[in-house]
Amino acid sequence: MAQAGKSQGKHAGEWYGPFGTANVLKQLADSDPKFSPRTYVTSDGIIQVQDLVTLEEGVTMEELFKRQPEQKMKMEPTLILVATRLGIDRVNPIYFRFIKTCLSSKLCVGIAGGKPSSALYFIGFEGDDLVYLDPHFNKPKINRRNSYSEYNSADVASYRCSEMKKTHISRIDPCMFVGFYIDSVDSLLSLYLTLKPFESVVILSTEPPVCEVGAGTSVDDLGVLSGGDDDSF
Questions:
Q1: Which Gene Ontology MF annotations are present (predicted)?
Q2: SS3 assignment, position 132
Q3: 163 conformational bin, left if phi > 0, alpha if psi -120 to 50, beta if neither
Q4: Could you tell me the residue ranges of all domains in the chain?
Q5: I want to staple 129 with a disulfide (CB 3.0 to 4.6 A). Which of 112, 166, 223, 229 is the partner?
Q6: Percent of the chain that is helix, strand, coil (3-state, to 5)
Q7: How far is 1 from 10, CA to CA, in rounded Å?
Q8: How far apart are CA 18 and CA 233, in angstroms?
Q9: Is 111:122 a contact under the CB 8 Å cutoff?
């Protein structure tokens, strides 16, 4: 990751914001032929549908809904990473429902964020508490067995947490990226319906972008998602 970060203008040991982290993950995924889903990153709140599936010019999401199964085009499995900022120093309460809706979706693979200077991986919620995994807590590697029956109870237990770690949603940093896994046009349409009530945060668009960020743009050029410790992890 440190090596990939050099192309983003980051040095080993520097903090990464959500957009920088998402871009590095994309670069690592694209460079690994064994990683099957392609990776799509957005930081402007717009998921360009034509980047995920081939569309005829002028086709809208509503028209995609009306197509019969045999008329729908195929698409590659895709990991979508949406980098966003949902407040100034803390998450604005108006976005609590957005976070919970994402974590409730079967298409969501989790949210990477945390608290200031502390990276966390949110996987669910209970009331207003977010359930998270701490990437700083490592476990010993389990030796690979020839079959599942060869794993003992201690091996299996190591893949689970003995207790849930939680933090109140109001305490997390407003900078984060949300991950979604899409493997078909139907799941893309399902994501569209899930996110439609939250178009102020993210929207699936079939309209071509007005402008594009150049390939040479560094992480810090998009300052809304990078900079000081409070929005880095």
A1: cysteine-type endopeptidase activity; protein-phosphatidylethanolamide deconjugating activity
A2: strand
A3: beta
A4: 2-134+167-208+218-228
A5: 166
A6: 35, 25, 45
A7: 10
A8: 7
A9: yes
Amino acid symbol at 23: N
What tokens were used for 159?
Answer: 């893949």
- Rounded Cα distance, 200 and 59, in Å: 22
Cα separation, 166 vs 91, whole angstroms: 16
At residue 32, the 3 state secondary structure works out as coil
Give dist(CA 222, CA 218) in Å, integer: 8
The rounded radius of gyration (Å) of the Cα atoms in the chain is 19
DSSP structure string for 76-121: --EEEEEEEE-BSSSB-GGGHHHHHHHHHSTTEEEEEEEETTEEEE
With contact defined as beta carbons under 8 Å apart, do 33 and 56 qualify? no
Sheet holding 78-85, edge to edge: 38-42, 78-85, 175-182, 108-115, 118-126, 129-133, 165-168
Q: What percent of the chain has pLDDT over 90?
A: 35
**Tokens 């949110």, located at residue:** 122
Taking the model in full, what pTM does it have? 0.78
Nearest to 15 by CA among 219, 222, 224: 219
Least confident of 27-31, 104-108, 135-139, 190-194: 135-139
Q: Mean pLDDT throughout 16-24? A: 81
| Cα 191 to Cα 106: distance, rounded to the nearest angstrom | 10
